[in-house]
């Protein structure tokens, strides 16, 4: 903080602390700001929102149970709603690399809510009222899981569905556009461009299914377990009632009270699981993006099978060069997600006895992965997939020129003779058909009509069976 910053004095159980005069946070938040100047990165917006939603829900339940008087409860509920709406994100300054339980950020939320309430004329205490019936050990992981579930359902799954539909449109458009298949990056028997894009469509759909399959575990919330899972200082049924309130306010019925509160606080396996599903989506998008930029490579020395949209100049020194920038962005996001998952897996193993103490970094990585995948999937569909055009003539020429189209002749002339045909055709730069004729293989076992039928590259794709 600069020397010109004006301060006020706040107090906590450890003594006095100087806090910026206009800050809504108080002493415990300020101590954390000074203790953890590490990355300059705070909580994800989704988690700040979730903390606001959770604090409001807890106040509702405490009010309804007669533990918190109505005036204080309404002040907490109103202040928490402002946080959930994003009106005070700048009041959450604590670095993500902090105490492993997230206690600092939980107290940050408590203090900001208390200050907002005070500004509105109500006196509430951060611990006694805002944090009533709660512990950082159940609130911070609850907010993390709530944020992740909401982000998957409301952000990532719609973005992936948008991408899936864009790929499906291309699969339908190119149903009969024949091309050379490739295995090991070498020529293989023909496929259609539509079949390839149908495969990409299914990859995205399967990724969505994997994410949906994680929600029953990810949606289990530890609220109500308080410090170690026993529920000390929380009334009976508190967790279930808070979850019901969160379901009501968010409309997300994938949320549930933890089946076992000791598991729900000692381990973060639900985050590890969803991170693995996010990594799989990233791997799928990498494969799709790589195929598309390979097919768009050129314009003269590459495959030249697809034309990608021209989005921006590609070089500061080579005039006219255009690069596959969206596929490159996709693969960079994927690299980040894979790295995030490695950190989440490592952190997930850090559950010691009754508490995992890597929750903030797990939360940041999972929520960042969701945010990045959602954003890049939408862009990939809108600024790349929708604008792809197929060079159909070149695709067919390459398919018909491939020595692999000799494969349907195996049953007529035998595998070894077919291999000889393929090698001769490649060596002499002739078509497979001409080489078969040159080798005198057209006769009783193979008529010219049968040869043409077997060498029809579109029929080799079995497209009529799809």
Automatic annotation (TrEMBL):
Pfam families: FumaraseC_C, Lyase_1
The Fumarate lyase N-terminal domain, residue ranges: 15-339
Catalytic activity: (S)-malate = fumarate + H2O
Major localization class: cytoplasm
A cellular component term, taken from the record's GO annotations: cytoplasm
CDD domains reported for this sequence: Fumarase_classII
GO MF annotation terms: fumarate hydratase activity
Enzyme nomenclature, EC number: 4.2.1.2
The entry's keywords: Cytoplasm, Lyase, Tricarboxylic acid cycle
Record's subunit section: Homotetramer.
Family: Belongs to the class-II fumarase/aspartase family. Fumarase subfamily.
Protein name (record): Fumarate hydratase class II
